[in-house]
Amino acid sequence: MNPTIEIRPIKKKDNQEIAEVIRTVLIALNAPLTGTAYADPTLETLFETYKHPNACYYVIEKNGKIVGGAGIMQLEDADPLICELQKMYFSPSVRGIGMGAKMMELCLKFAKSAGFKKCYLETLPQMKEAQRLYKKVGFNYIENRIGTTGHYSCNVWMLKDL
Q1: What is the pTM of this model?
Q2: Domain containing 54 — which CATH number?
Q3: I need a labelling partner for 133 at 20 to 30 A (CA). Which of 69, 80, 125, 162 fits?
Q4: Average pLDDT of the residues of the chain
């Protein structure tokens, strides 16, 4: 039986499942638990956090279970025309099958339609596969962080013109 995979906007009922996916991925990567999405105060309320006109969060649902997600929001304490790709994490069951590229396409399309001119992201050095995807879609490494994300443990910064 082929799995049913759907990408869709987050719903309130998804909050707990996507928070669990993000934390599980970070633990598996041996990532710091502070200064990353793991400790974000909004991690349990992503539906509410992204519920405004210039923000979006998509989840990947596989056979009725949330297995990944990614979002776009204006970058805090930065040029209002810069958004941030946020909380892009996938369970192993949907890695390597093109879901990252599809999710990235959706998020960047939304960012452009919302009027953003640049997209920023922060990641961890060990997230090599993600960095390959980011470079493939036009993100470039930059020397310094931009804005205020609270992710002081993420020390790889990238930016893309939209």
Answers
A1: 0.94
A2: 3.40.630.30
A3: 80
A4: 94
